[in-house]
Amino acid sequence: VSQSRYDALRLAVTLKMGIAVDFDRIDVTTSEEVVATEHLYELPTPTDPYVATRRAIVRAAAEIEKARHD
């Protein structure tokens, strides 16, 4: 198992993110709002849901950090 999988999960737990996986999308939330969404089938080839989840977690963490400094 790659380290990035563990790192993404650790990041989600540390920042108290919620992760909702639906048929065609993944939403990462904080207690207040949806912070990042990855759509699995909007690209020409379907996205691996595990890769999309890690990407959504990292994008959400970046948005949370950005909001802290705005």
List key phrases describing it.
three-stranded antiparallel sheet; 21% strand; 2 helices; single chain; 47% helix; 70 residues; alpha+beta
Description of the molecule:
The chain has helices at residues 3-14, 49-69, and strands spanning 18-21, 25-29, 34-39. It is α+β, with helices and mostly antiparallel strands and 70 residues long. Strands 1-2-3 form a 3-stranded antiparallel beta sheet, covered by helices on one side. The longest helix is centred in the last third of the chain and has 21 residues, at 49-69. It has 2 helices and 3 strands, in the order αβββα. It starts with a helix and ends with a helix.
What is the compact description of this entry?
With 70 residues, the chain is of the alpha+beta class. Helices cover 47% and strands 21% of the residues.
Q: Helix fraction?
A: 40-55%
Class from helix and strand fractions: alpha+beta
Number of strands: 3
Mean pLDDT: 84
How are the SSEs ordered, and which strands pair?
Elements: H1 3-14, E1 18-21, E2 25-29, E3 34-39, H2 49-69
Antiparallel strand pairs: 1-2, 2-3
Helix pairs in contact: 1-2
